[in-house]
């Protein structure tokens, strides 16, 4: 059983069961698939038109491996609201016991990336992200007039995705902006790893790279700093209704080119 941190009156087991049923449902990813595909196509088309010629990209080492790692913040989002209804003998008039509203809170993010430059302009990149946000479920509008209470549990969240990176023109000495978009796999585990929820993630974003060290000899070619900002569109996983959720994420770290 998940450990619950309670706010307000003591937790009531009968309500915990109902809230648990509402908090875990599997939704269709057809809508987010269409939205993600359209977003990816528009982003690549627009940025290709704005990108500079390859001659200006001579500091991107084609065919070399880039590793990066860092930490940041994964933004929160509402998961939905649902009433716990008791069936009655009166048709279409259920009796509401209480209302459950769930939200995934903002939490720390740790990520690692592996990329390869296909050309001075384009690269492909795989990404692994891990976070441990809090799942907050508030029970309100109690039929017996009890005050609202909030149950909290920690969720282990894994994101494995990949996509295309488009390098843009320099902003200054050593500063290289880029945009990126792609899709991947979402895995969320309830506290205690009792229940596992799978889903899909689409993302679009960008960032900056700043080279600190560059050399032509040796195993390590470039060492620098990297900052990323992404909009993640999640489908499936832990949620109440079938709507997609949008989570912003920012992170910073170090990159190394071999």
* Major β-sheet strand ordering: 2-5-6-9-10-11-12-13
Tally of strands: 13
Query: How many domains would you count in the coordinates?
Result: 1
Strand percent estimate: over 45%
What's the helix-strand series?
Answer: EHHEEEEEEEEEEEE
Mean pLDDT: 77
CATH first level: Mainly Beta
Helix tally equals 2
Distance between the termini: 46 Å
Based on Cα principal axes, name the global outline. Answer: elongated
Determine the CATH topology: Porin
Outline the biggest β-sheet: 8 strands, antiparallel, barrel
C-alpha Rg, in Å?
22 Å
Q: Helix content range of the residues, please?
A: 10-25%
> What CATH architecture would you give?
Beta Barrel
Q: Structural class, from helix and strand content?
A: mainly beta
Spans of 5+ residues with little confidence (pLDDT < 50)? 1-33, 43-58
Describe the structure concisely.
The chain is mainly beta and 258 residues long.
Model description:
With 258 residues, the chain is mainly β. It has a single domain, classed as Porin, CATH 2.40.160.20. 12% of the residues lie in helices and 55% in strands. An eight-stranded antiparallel β-barrel has the order 2-5-6-9-10-11-12-13. A five-stranded antiparallel beta sheet has the order 1-8-7-4-3, with helices on one face. Strand 10 and strand 11 form a beta hairpin. The protein is elongated and about 80 Å long. The N terminus is likely disordered.
């Amino acid at each position: 059983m998940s450990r619950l941190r309670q706010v307000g009156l003591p937790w009531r087991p009968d309500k915990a069961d109902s809230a648990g049923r509402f908090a875990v449902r599997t939704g269709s990813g057809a809508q987010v698939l269409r939205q993600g595909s359209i977003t990816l196509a528009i982003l690549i088309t627009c940025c290709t038109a704005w990108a500079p010629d390859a001659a200006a990209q001579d500091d991107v080492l084609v065919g070399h491996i880039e590793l990066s790692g860092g930490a940041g913040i994964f933004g929160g989002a509402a998961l939905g609201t649902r009433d716990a209804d008791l069936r009655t003998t009166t048709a279409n008039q259920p009796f509401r016991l209480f209302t459950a509203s769930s939200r995934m809170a903002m939490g720390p993010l740790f990520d690692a990336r592996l990329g390869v430059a296909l050309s001075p302009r384009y690269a492909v990149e795989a990404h692994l992200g891990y976070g441990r946000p809090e799942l907050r479920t508030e029970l309100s509008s109690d039929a017996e007039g009890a005050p609202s209470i909030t149950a909290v549990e920690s969720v282990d969240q894994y994101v494995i995705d990949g996509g295309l990176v488009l390098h843009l023109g320099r902003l200054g000495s050593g500063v290289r902006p880029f945009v990126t978009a792609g899709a991947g796999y979402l895995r969320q585990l309830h506290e205690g790893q009792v229940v596992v929820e799978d889903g899909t993630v689409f993302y679009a974003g960008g960032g900056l790279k700043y080279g600190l060290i560059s050399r032509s000899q040796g195993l390590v070619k470039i060492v620098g700093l990297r900052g990323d900002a992404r909009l993640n569109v999640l489908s499936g996983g832990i949620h109440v209704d079938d709507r997609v959720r949008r989570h912003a994420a920012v992170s910073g770290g170090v990159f190394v080119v071999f």
